[in-house]
Design goal:
The chain has about 70 residues and is α+β, with helices and mostly antiparallel strands. It has 2 helices and 3 strands, in the order βββαα. The longest helix has 15 residues.
């Protein structure tokens, strides 16, 4: 589990939990779960309708996939 700075330091906070599971065919499935909070309503609105709530996770997983594909 990874935790970012809490609401006392920033207007957002939370954790990412990484779970690895055997796919049964020699592969591994990664499940990334975010438990986050965004305090100011304007930040929540921007995150939902402008930036996307899962943009950071998608970017992280794309970079991880690229890294793992490199020989």
């Amino acid at each position: 589990m990874r935790e970012i700075a809490g609401p006392k330091d920033l207007p957002f906070g939370g954790t990412w939990t990484f779970e690895l599971a055997d796919t049964g065919d020699g592969g591994t499935r990664l499940t990334l779960t975010e438990d986050g909070v965004i305090e100011p309503p304007v930040f929540r609105a921007l995150a939902k309708w402008v930036f996307g709530l899962d943009t950071t996770q998608k970017d992280y997983l794309a970079c991880l996939e690229k890294h793992l594909a490199t020989p």
